[in-house]
Each structure stands twice: as structure tokens, then as C-alpha cells.
């Protein structure tokens, strides 16, 4: 099993095995990171990884996880922006029990 040297922000250089490290690659923009738990302080460390680092770690036997960006990032909101006044109005409505019950009844009606 290959030994990997990485740096922990708290402990400086630490020695890891391939089982201690996970490479994460975003399928949408091909950016990469690697992650590990520091064997000394147990901190969870995430580091950016350029393509040559991803290739090196992968060739050493490190597990690769491919992920995609959430679809919500591609959504564009419609309508007016939500303002501070809207938030205050919503807060007031949540404290009105009758209003909450009416809203829940409307939701149930629309789901059925």
C-alpha cells in the first residue's frame, strides 16, 4: 500500500495510506479535491487538487468519488426579490395560528 504525505493545517505534514484519502472530482467542471482525517488531531481536511494531483493519487490507488453540482444552481428565480419586509410579514404570519391552519389546509387540499 502506497504512503501519501499530506499537510494538516494544525499538525503540518502527516503520513497517510491510500485507504486514508478520498479524491472527489466534480463531473460538471472537472475540479478536484482530496480529503482525509488527520491521524494526529482527527481533523477532517479538504484540499484542492489540480488534475496532476488527482492523477497521481488515483494511480496510487486512492478511491475516487465523482459528484455533480446540484440542479438548484442552474435554476433562475422568477419574480421580485425576497425583502426584509417580506421576512417580517412571514414571521408575523407564522405567529397567527389561524393563518397557519388555513395555509396547511390549503396545502393538503392541493396535494390531494
Describe the protein's architecture and organization.
The protein is an alpha+beta fold and 112 residues long. The protein has 2 domains: 67 residues, no CATH class; 31 residues. It is built from 3 helices and 6 strands. Strands 5-4-3-6 form a 4-stranded mixed sheet. Strands 1-2 form a two-stranded antiparallel sheet. The longest helix has 15 residues. The model has no long low-confidence stretch (mean pLDDT 93).
Secondary-structure map with pairings?
Blueprint lengths: L2 E6 L3 E6 L3 E6 L5 E6 L6 E6 L1 H9 L3 E5 L16 H11 L2 H15 L1
Parallel strand pairs: 3-6
Antiparallel strand pairs: 1-2, 3-4, 4-5
Rg estimate, integer Å: 24 Å
Helix content: 25-40%
Total discrete domains: 2
Structural class: alpha+beta
Strand line-up of the largest beta sheet: 5-4-3-6
Taken in chain order, the helices and strands follow as EEEEEHEHH
Number of helices: 3
Keywords:
single chain; 112 residues; alpha+beta; 4-stranded mixed sheet; 3 helices; 31% helix
A few lines on this structure:
By secondary structure, the protein is α+β, with helices and mostly antiparallel strands.
Amino acid at each position: 500500500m502506497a504512503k501519501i504525505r499530506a499537510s494538516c493545517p494544525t499538525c503540518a505534514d502527516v503520513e497517510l495510506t491510500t485507504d486514508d484519502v478520498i479524491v472527489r472530482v466534480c463531473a460538471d467542471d472537472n475540479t478536484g479535491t482530496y480529503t482525509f482525517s488527520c491521524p494526529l488531531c482527527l481533523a477532517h481536511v479538504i484540499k484542492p487538487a489540480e488534475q496532476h494531483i488527482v492523477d497521481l493519487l488515483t494511480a496510487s490507488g486512492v478511491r475516487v468519488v465523482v459528484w455533480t453540482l446540484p440542479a438548484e444552481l442552474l435554476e433562475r428565480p422568477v419574480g421580485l426579490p425576497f425583502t426584509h419586509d417580506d421576512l417580517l410579514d412571514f414571521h408575523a404570519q407564522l405567529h397567527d395560528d389561524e393563518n397557519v391552519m388555513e395555509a396547511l389546509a390549503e396545502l393538503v387540499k392541493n396535494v390531494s
